[in-house]
Design brief:
Layout lengths: L2 H13 L3 H13 L1 H17 L1 H4 L5 H13 L6 H24 L2 H4 L20 H18 L15 H25 L6 H32 L30
Helix pairs in contact: 2-3, 3-6, 5-6, 5-10, 8-9, 9-10
Length: 254
């Protein structure tokens, strides 16, 4: 499913084709300069998707670790599950920004937005603390589903707590991110880009390690306990030695 996209991106990288410039030029000629500055540059690039690179936000970079974990996890996934997860993580930064803007201005303070004087419009996802925490919880639920085979193993592994560690670490880093941005927002100052880049690197490193490490642990645990199906981790005890395939996923044993 992802091979056509990967092939096109590889062609753009090797051929020197600037896809971003081509998209912005097409939008400029068809929709005007205001659309390019307001929607593409302000809302998408700097308002939402930059946060998925430099802060605690689930976006396309997070999708890489999730897809690898789903591939490694001893569980069978249907096409609609792959598609749903991919679609959510691709559009999540934009959805979070829109959700933050739907919060009435008088209630925004209850959700962690401390606007500077004269500003009555959310311009970045990280400014609304509650929205960032909500999407972190959703990522934790997704990780809990992906790493579910770990909870079915008789030999317990510390990796079974990986979803909780993921949410706890993301919440702590997201709280720190919002806290350090608060005084700079009030004083109309900006943090150095190095600080945001560092937080983004730390977040994606830990998220990738927890998701992929948990998936590898689940795969090894299922292979070690021979009474589990190696494809979906279903408990096969009681089916008899002549069972031709797993009743859960249909994986053959031959």
């Amino acid at each position: 499913m992802l091979l056509p996209v990967a092939g096109w991106l590889a062609y753009c990288a090797l051929g020197g084709f600037d896809l971003r410039l081509a998209i912005m030029a097409a939008c400029y000629h068809r929709l005007g300069e205001d659309f390019v500055w307001t929607v593409i540059i302000s809302d998408l690039l700097f308002g939402s998707y930059s946060m998925s690179l430099f802060g605690v936000l689930c976006g396309p970079p997070t999708l890489l670790w999730v897809l690898i974990a789903m591939h490694l996890s001893p569980r069978r996934w249907s096409w609609w599950q792959w598609s749903t997860v991919s679609a959510w993580l691709v559009v999540n930064p934009w959805l979070c920004l829109q959700a933050a803007r739907l919060i009435p201005f008088r209630l925004a303070g209850w959700f962690g937005w401390i606007p500077p004087v004269g500003l009555r419009r959310v311009v970045a996802v990280g400014q609304v603390y509650a929205v960032v925490m909500a999407q972190l919880l959703l990522l934790g639920v997704l990780a809990w589903v992906i790493l579910r085979p770990l909870r079915d193993l008789e030999q317990r592994s510390c990796w079974r707590w990986a979803p909780m560690w993921l949410v706890a670490f993301g919440s702590a880093l997201g709280t720190f991110q919002w806290w350090v941005d608060w005084p700079s927002t009030q004083a109309n100052l900006t943090l150095p880009w190095g600080a945001w880049v560092s937080m983004g690197i730390v977040w994606h490193t830990i998220a990738g390690a927890l998701l992929i490490g948990g998936a590898i642990a689940a795969r090894r645990g299922v292979a070690r306990e021979s009474w589990h199906c190696r494809n979906c981790a279903y408990d096969l005890r009681g089916l008899g030695p002549r069972a031709p395939q797993c009743p859960e996923c249909g994986h053959g044993f031959a």
